[in-house]
Amino acid sequence: DAGITQSPRHKVTETGTPVTLRCHQTENHRYMYWYRQDPGHGLRLIHYSYGVKDTDKGEVSDGYSVSRSKTEDFLLTLESATSSQTSVYFCAISESQGLTNEKLFFGSGTQLSVL
Amino acid sequence: QKEVEQDPGPLSVPEGAIVSLNCTYSNSAFQYFMWYRQYSRKGPELLMYTYSSGNKEDGRFTAQVDKSSKYISLFIRDSQPSDSATYLCAMRKAAGNKLTFGGGTRVLVKP
Question: Which of A107, A99, A103 lies closest to A35, judged by CA?
Fold first, then answer.
């Protein structure tokens, strides 16, 4: 999957606990994204980063925070997990956001279950 | 109402048939259109990217955009069992970086 590693691949946690998902890329791409995928909703953007320490919110950012201290790593934290955050989480990267480059490369996903 | 609508399927076809997929959208600001393919337990991968109204071909795949009707399509000719996957449409406005995805259509190609 284009040099993108997500960890863990599966996680089960309890309501109220903090959870951190990690995305690691070896492509040196500038842009990194976190999406969640739920039945009937498709992929929805949570947060994205356009450089080290530069991040911005997506459409479903409540309850999530992110950090990017190195080009290759983008962390997604659920501050206090809720059952509504049970989902499959995908990390994606892209080289640029220019008009000619809409190519997002996705990782294999993290299945998160919040009980 | 969602900005992008896509029938979830499943769409089941025999091998060799033409697969026809489509998405409708409500926001005329969408200018760039993409189709992604997603195999089970994998991330989506970009199949087709189009900007203008009309057709774009790539091998067995044809993407069609009709901006006047706010309707996009993907056709897969000579379908193979390996085409069995979920197909997601995505689109973006001229300004900004956010992609809006459809919910995906699951396709099953039976040998």
Answer: A107
Inform me whether the C-beta atom of residue A89 falls under 8 Å from chain B C-beta atoms: no
Nearest to B4 by CA among B111, B105, B106, B110: B105
Cα dihedral sign, B29-A58-B23-B48: positive
A25, two tokens: 């890329």
List CB contacts (< 8 A) between A98 and chain B.
none
Q: DSSP class of residue B17?
A: S
Residue A12's contacts (CB-CB under 8 Å, 6 or more residues apart) are A112, A113, A115
B97 touches chain A (CB under 8 A): yes
Query: pLDDT per residue over A56-78, tens digit each?
Result: 999 899 999 999 999 999 999 99
CB pairs under 8 A between A and B: 54
Mapped onto helix, strand or coil, the DSSP state of residue A109 is coil
**Per-residue pLDDT tens digits for B9-35:** 899 999 999 999 999 999 999 989 999
What's the length of chain B?
111
